[in-house]
Amino acid sequence: MQSNALNSTESYHVRTAVRVLGALLIVFVGADHYWAYSVDQYSVLPTIGTLFLLNFISATVVGVALLAPLERIFHRSGRIILEMATVSGFGIAATSLVALLVSEQTRLFGFMESNYRPAIIVAIASEAAAAASLALLLALTVKATKGSVSKKNRPTAVERSRPGVGTT
């Protein structure tokens, strides 16, 4: 019994660590896009500039949501909102990575990256790390949800020992 409680506690701490890591990485992805938007003058590019600004805004919102105690704020809906924020963060990171890799090979919305300069390498690494950590968070969250649901439906040892329990 104690090992199950310990595993549950360890699982919670692992999920929390992965959640904070994913949140920080997605905020970094957004900050990197804002830096390119403002410092690298991507703001003057017609479609790309707008997309970089939207990436910054959405990544910041998702990162803050992942850092917030959603289960305490929204009670019953907290787990679902956490999963939605996790999927959103994964989507932001993965599509940013795919768009960057495509723009290295061909024109994307009329724009093409020219080489793998340090800023591009940082972007690729941070987007890949954010996508991987958020995918892991989603898997751990879904696994924990399934585990808690199946534990609720199982009869306890005391209930199993009673005659007539579990028979139809």
Largest sheet: none
Helix content: over 70%
* Number of structural domains: 1
User: Strand tally, please?
Assistant: 0
Q: State mean pLDDT (0 to 100 scale).
A: 86
Task: Characterize the structure shown.
By secondary structure, this protein is mainly α. It has one domain (12-144). Helices cover 79% and strands 0% of the residues. The chain has helices spanning 2-38, 46-67, 70-74, 78-105, 118-153, 157-161. Helix 1 packs antiparallel against helix 2 (46-67). The longest helix is centred in the N-terminal third of the chain and has 37 residues, at 2-38. The two termini are 29 Å apart.
Short characterization:
The chain contains six helices and no strands. It is an all-alpha fold. The protein has one domain (12-144).
Q: Which key features would you list for this structure?
A:
mainly alpha; 168 residues
Q: How would the blueprint of this fold be written?
A:
Layout: H1 2-38, H2 46-67, H3 70-74, H4 78-105, H5 118-153, H6 157-161
Helix pairs in contact: 1-2, 1-4, 1-5, 2-4, 4-5
